[in-house]
Each structure stands twice: as C-alpha cells, then as structure tokens.
C-alpha cells in the first residue's frame, strides 16, 4: 500500500494525541529541515485556524502547512534522530494548543450559527488569533444588548451538550444538506454537524460535544468594512480573560478603597473634583507668577534707560517662565531675560516692553545663547531658544553679559 498523503488522522479523530507514521519525504527549507509523513495528526494552517505544534521523535514541530498538491509538511527544529533501519516515528500533538483551537473553532461555528438564528447575520470572515478570535458579520450595526441575546442563545446550545460529528459527503449529495455556508472546496466535502443546530463545510478541528467548549464570551464589537467585527473567547481563554478582568477590578477597588459596584460613580466624582482642583491650581499659579513678576521688577536695576530683569529657575515649566516675561513687560521701559533649566536643557526667553522699539530681543537672546552653545529666534519684542545644560552661575553670567549697557 503506497502512501495516501492527504490521509489526515485529525479528520478521523480530533482527540488523537499520539500516532505512528512513516517518513515518506524530507527536504531542507530556509527555516530548517522538514518532513512529510504517510499519515499525520498534525493540523496544517488553513481555514482561519493556526497549525498544531508538538514533536516527531521528540524533535519539536514548529510549523505545519499544506501545499497545493495536498502534501502536508512538518517543519522541525532540528534533523530527526533516525537509526538506519528505523521505519516509523512517533508523533505527539501539543494537546493544550490543539484543545484550545478545538474550543475556539467549535465556538466559532456555534456563534456564527447563533448570529444567523437570532439576527439573521451571516459570517463572512473568521480569524483564530493567539489571544482573541474574531468573526466578521454582514450586519450594519450591533449593540451590546443585541450581542448579549446571541451570547445567551449560544451558551444555551453549549450547555445542551449536543454531539458534534463529521460526515464526508460527495459533490452530488451536498445539495441535500442545509449548509450554513457553501463549501470552498471541490470533491469529497467534510461537513461538521452540531446536532439539530448547524451544518458547515469545514476541515478544522472540533470538540466531540458542545459542552467541551465550556463558555463563549463576546469581548469586543467594532465596525469593520461596512459590517461588524465581533471578538470572542471560548473555554479556557474565557476563564483566563475573566480572571484577568476580575483581578484588575479588584486591584482598582482596593487601591481606591471603593466597592466594585460603586466604582463608575466614584470615578466620575473623582474626575470632576480633579477638574475643579486643576482649575483652582492654575488660578493660583497665575497669581503667584504675577506676584513674582512684580517682586522681580521692583528689585531689578535700571540700566541703559530701562529696567533689566534677569532670573534663572530650576523648578518650573517654560510656559510659566514665558508668562512671567510677558507680565514683566507690561511695565513701561522693561527688558526681561529669563532662563529655566529643564530635563532637556536650558530654555531662555527674552522680552521687552512695547515702548522700547529700538531694542531687539532676538539679538540679546542670541548673544546669551552664543555663550551657552545654544540656538533660538523670534520677534524683536519676544524671542526664545534653548541650549545644553550648564551650571547655574554660567547661565546667569551669560544672561548678564548679553544685557544692553
Ligand atoms: Zn470548523
């Protein structure tokens, strides 16, 4: 008997975890050595479902794919350790991954069928991701309330524990079967039945009874290409997601010392309070900047027919320094040359009052910046710039050096 390469053991029994097979072809790909077997329980990537992983003779299988001729290739982490007279190898499926895919994939059949049942919304796309799974529905809009009705329906079907069976049907017979979606392949067609609820042409892996899916939870709704994309998690993924969400909620509740059910209202209150506090703080900052500007102005010396105010800070935002400069120059015959040291460097602003038309703030600023190795520009009445960090006395020295005499 020569190998029937497309004989997929998973077709017959999706619960097969270990099998024996003969290696019928080997090759070296860019990603490593690959083998073909006379039969395999490894599922190759297809139909929106990722491939299985596992081992062949304890060598990790890292990818499985099917080629156009129906041949299934297993990419190995390293060469198989075969003795010269060895005919068969042992394959083992990574069962946690396989069962997870069975739960998600069967859950998808049920969810798609429930969306037809409740809202007459057909599924046009499916993706089994490493975290969430999605289906794309032909439905213009879907609210959470509408999605919850489907969730109730589909979990009822899960808990009824209906048998999930596989039937091979010829092209001629297929018309007799009430398929939810027409088959994408020709020849023998594999139909997956959920007893009394759904029939779909599908080559993927599924559980034997709907109860094994455990739970189906819709986790996201978004508009997508004129329809809706629905994210969901089944079985162990739903449990893990519930665990994660509950832990987050409990942490927030503990941190804020607020009961879980009171959180939405409390957060709204906290946000409103923060807004009021923020606004009050701004008012205080403005008043403080005004007071400081007045104090600086009165203390500043007169030179070259103007009051020259020089200052350097290390503890405030540049916006605040600029506001102080503007406030200072509301006084007549005033020049302000101010600096602040921030994490990114030294920032300078030079401003003068409107009545000092002959004084160029840009020229004064640049002279100070030249001494500090920086750059800047602006208008004759106000200019700003930056330089690398320097010691405070060097900055003050550069500012004083640039003042008109
Ligand atoms: Zn399927």
Key attributes of the depicted protein:
single chain, 405 residues, alpha+beta, Elongation Factor Tu (Ef-tu), domain 3, Threonyl-tRNA Synthetase, Chain A, domain 2, Diaminopimelate Epimerase, Chain A, domain 1, 6-stranded mixed β-sheet, elongated, binds zinc ion
What does this structure look like?
The protein has 405 residues and is an alpha+beta fold. The chain contains 8 helices and 19 strands. The chain has helices at residues 9-12, 95-119, 144-159, 235-256, 263-299, 318-328, 361-372, 392-402, and strands spanning 18-29, 32-37, 54-56, 59-66, 72-76, 88-93, 123-128, 133-137, 164-169, 189-194, 198-201, 216-224, 227-234, 302-303, 306-313, 334-342, 345-352, 375-378, 382-387. A 6-stranded antiparallel β-barrel has the order 1-2-5-4-3-6. It has a 6-stranded mixed sheet with strand order 14-15-16-17-19-18, with helices on both faces. Strand 4 and strand 5 form a beta hairpin. Helix 2 crosses helix 3 and helix 7 (361-372) packs antiparallel against helix 8. The model is unreliable at 1-6 (pLDDT under 50). The chain binds zinc ion. Zinc ion (ZN) binds next to helix 2.
Strand-helix topology:
Blueprint: H1 9-12, E1 18-29, E2 32-37, E3 54-56, E4 59-66, E5 72-76, E6 88-93, H2 95-119, E7 123-128, E8 133-137, H3 144-159, E9 164-169, E10 189-194, E11 198-201, E12 216-224, E13 227-234, H4 235-256, H5 263-299, E14 302-303, E15 306-313, H6 318-328, E16 334-342, E17 345-352, H7 361-372, E18 375-378, E19 382-387, H8 392-402
The protein binds zinc ion.
């Amino acid at each position: 008997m020569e190998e029937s390469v497309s004989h997929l053991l998973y077709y017959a029994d999706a619960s097969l975890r270990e099998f024996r097979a003969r290696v019928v072809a080997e090759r070296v790909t860019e990603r490593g050595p690959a083998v073909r077997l006379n039969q395999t329980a490894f599922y190759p990537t297809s139909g929106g479902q990722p491939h299985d992983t596992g081992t062949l003779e304890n060598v990790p299988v890292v990818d499985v794919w099917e080629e156009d001729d129906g041949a299934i290739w297993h990419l190995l982490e390293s060469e198989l350790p075969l003795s010269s007279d060895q005919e068969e190898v042992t394959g083992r499926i990574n069962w946690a991954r396989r069962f997870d895919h069975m739960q998600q994939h069967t859950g998808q059949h049920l969810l798609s069928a429930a969306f037809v049942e409740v809202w007459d919304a057909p599924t046009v796309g499916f993706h089994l991701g490493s975290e969430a799974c999605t289906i794309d529905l032909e439905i213009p809009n879907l609210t959470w309330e509408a999605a919850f009705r489907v969730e109730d329906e589909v979990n009822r079907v899960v808990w009824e524990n209906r048998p999930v069976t596989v039937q091979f049907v010829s092209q001629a017979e297929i018309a007799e079967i009430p398929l939810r979606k027409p088959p994408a392949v020709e020849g023998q067609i594999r139909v997956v039945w959920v007893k009394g609820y759904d029939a779909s042409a599908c080559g993927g892996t599924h559980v034997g009874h709907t109860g094994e899916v455990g739970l189906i939870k819709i986790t996201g709704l978004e508009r997508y290409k004129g329809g809706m994309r629905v994210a969901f998690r089944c079985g162990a993924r739903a449990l893990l997601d519930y665990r994660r969400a509950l832990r987050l909620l409990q942490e927030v509740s503990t941190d804020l010392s607020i009961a879980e059910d009171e959180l939405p209202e409390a957060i709204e209150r906290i946000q409103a309070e923060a807004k009021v506090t923020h606004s009050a703080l701004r008012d205080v900052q403005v008043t403080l900047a005004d007071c400081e500007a007045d104090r600086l102005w009165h203390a500043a010396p007169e030179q070259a027919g103007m009051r020259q105010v020089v200052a350097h800070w290390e503890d405030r935002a540049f916006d605040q320094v600029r506001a102080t400069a503007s406030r200072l120059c509301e006084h007549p015959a005033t020049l302000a040359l101010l600096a602040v040291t921030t994490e990114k460097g030294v920032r300078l602003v030079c401003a003068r009052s409107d009545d000092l038309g002959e004084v160029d703030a840009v020229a004064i600023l640049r002279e100070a910046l030249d001494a500090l190795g920086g750059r800047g520009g602006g208008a004759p009445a106000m200019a700003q710039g930056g330089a690398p960090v320097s010691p405070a006395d060097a900055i003050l020295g550069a500012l004083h050096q640039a003042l008109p005499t």
